[in-house]
Amino acid sequence: MSSPSAPEDPQITHDLRVAQRGCDELLVASEFATKLARSHATGTPLRIKLGLDPTAPDIHLGHTVVLNKMRQLQDLGHTVIFLIGDFTAQIGDPSGRNATRPPLTPEQIQENAKTYYAQASLVLEPARTEIRYNSEWCDALGSRGLIQLASRYTVARMMERDDFTRRFKGGVPISVHEFLYPLLQGYDSVALKADLELGGTDQKFNLLVGRELQKEYGQEPQCILTMPLLEGTDGVEKMSKSKGNYIGISEAPDSMFGKLMSISDTLMWRYFELLSFRSLEDIAVLQAEITAGRNPRDAKVMLAQEIVDRFHGTGKGAQSLQNFNAQFRDGATPENLQEITVGAAPMGILKVLRESGLAASASEAQRNIQQGGVRIDGDRIEDKSLQLPAGTYVMQVGKRKFARVTLT
Question: In Å, what is the CA distance from 167 to each residue of 197, 289, 299?
Answer without folding.
Answer: 27, 50, 45
